[in-house]
Amino acid sequence: EAQVTQNPRYLITVTGKKLTVTCSQNMNHEYMSWYRQDPGLGLRQIYYSMNVEVTDKGDVPEGYKVSRKEKRNFPLILESPSPNQTSLYFCASSPGQGAMFEAFFGQGTRLTVV
Amino acid sequence: DAKTTQPPSMDCAEGRAANLPCNHSTISGNEYVYWYRQIHSQGPQYIIHGLKNNETNEMASLIITEDRKSSTLILPHATLRDTAVYYCIASRRLDSTSYGKLTFGQGTILTVHP
Q1: Residues 6+ apart with CB under 8 A from A6
Q2: Distance between CA atoms of B34 and A107, rounded to whole angstroms?
Q3: Which of A88, B8, B16, B20 is deepest in the core (most CB within 10 A)?
Q4: Residues of B in contact with A90 (CB under 8 A)
């Protein structure tokens, strides 16, 4: 089954404690991205990746890092989480070369930073 | 990406057609209309897309006006499980050198009632 898998689904952490949210897709997609969703602000893109070793900032990249060492994985790293990063996070993947219409999203990671 | 405008909420009776409008009066010639939906805090789900012709798939139909300034997503026989936030997005198609970002607005909350 084609899917994007995020882990963990829920996470409560303390300010400053580094964490990684993993994202993996099994569709051999070139494009992957991370979004955060906050009430009243909608979905905002954090980072995206066009292919292995190619990443770029989205609209709200501050406080986040990503890496794309393999095509299937695109982890989101919070080096020093702060309470304003409390949010619902989604990873997405889509085929390349003009076929971005159908983006597949993961089920989300609800992060709380206290 | 062209700005889209959707009504904040709509109701529909179960079994009836749900017609969700979207205004995109500033859409440019190379921008497609995409529809996604999000069922309560789950990852967004792709529904359908189109450029200028009407489109139909197993989930829905998309009607785009001749001047392309507006469109309507039609769920022919709405069920309770179609209750969700529906997003209309206008975005250009990817090419080999760029990455299109999906910009989600506030969407339309569709409530299907028995």
Answers
A1: A21, A22, A23, A89, A90, A91, A106, A107, A108, A109
A2: 20
A3: B20
A4: 43-44
10 Å CB burial of residue A43 (0-12, 13-18, 19+) is buried
Rounded to a whole number of angstroms, the distance from the CA of B88 to the nearest CA of chain A is 12
| pLDDT tens-digit readout, B46-95 | 999 999 989 999 999 999 999 999 999 999 999 999 999 999 998 876 55
Q: Please provide residue A3's backbone torsions phi and psi, each rounded to the nearest 5 degrees.
A: -160, 160
Note whether A106 contacts B46, CB cutoff 8 Å.
Answer: no
Nearest CA in chain A to B30: A98
